[in-house]
């Protein structure tokens, strides 16, 4: 999601304890290589032109030292809390449960590092108007190799652009864990292709943003 929104700048709660196998994981869809390269390049440009540290970095540093986990249930609980804080659209997440070299990926971009992820989110927050992220379900699972958490969600937000596009994506995120219950991979899948998602950015919405159209359980008015 971060990659898709960086591209545009330039142009709840259910918990299951069922164990799942690898077949439950969403299968990634193929995205054109040139699109991935473009999104990655634009994201890096945005990051280079940004400067300073803001409140989100401070919050994440505090959380890194104050939070520890000893089981997959702890991870599920903390992720639930992060979704309550709408971390996709506020940029505030519990970095302590992530490996510093965690792999972050969505259909448009791939990179490593929680600090980079935090910076990318920080770049996007000012462009969101009436954003919401509604957690549909969160469950833990395991394969023969490792444990994971799978969350499904609905993201809705208008963008602060003159034509006021509406971004509407249903998706899921897989959080792969290591043997110390640190998240080593944060991988998003969407119900639409990367090209369709980018297309939403250029589709105008007329009238004022309204909560009914967003259809969210947890709406954060950023106006």
Textual characterization of the structure:
The chain is α/β, with parallel strands linked by helices and 223 residues long. It has a single domain (2-22, 30-214), classed as Nuclear Transport Factor 2, Chain: A. The protein contains eight helices and seven strands. A seven-stranded mixed sheet has the order 1-4-5-6-7-2-3. A hairpin with a 6-residue loop joins strand 5 and strand 6 (166-177). The protein is elongated and about 50 Å long. Mean pLDDT is 78; it is low at 7-22, 51-56 and 215-223.
DSSP strand (E) fraction? 25-35%
How many separate domains make up the residues? 1
Assembly type of the chains comes to single chain
Using the alpha-carbon principal axes, give the shape: elongated
Task: Give the helix/strand layout.
Blueprint lengths: L1 H9 L4 E2 L16 H17 L5 H12 L5 H13 L2 H4 L7 E9 L2 E4 L1 H11 L3 E15 L4 E13 L6 E12 L5 E8 L3 H8 L9 H4 L9
Parallel strand pairs: 1-4, 2-7
Antiparallel strand pairs: 2-3, 4-5, 5-6, 6-7
In brief, what are we looking at here?
The protein is α/β, with parallel strands linked by helices and 223 residues long.
What distinguishing features does this structure have?
223 residues; alpha/beta; Nuclear Transport Factor 2, Chain: A; 7-stranded mixed β-sheet; 8 helices; 35% helix; 28% strand; disordered C terminus; DUF2358; NTF2 domain-containing protein
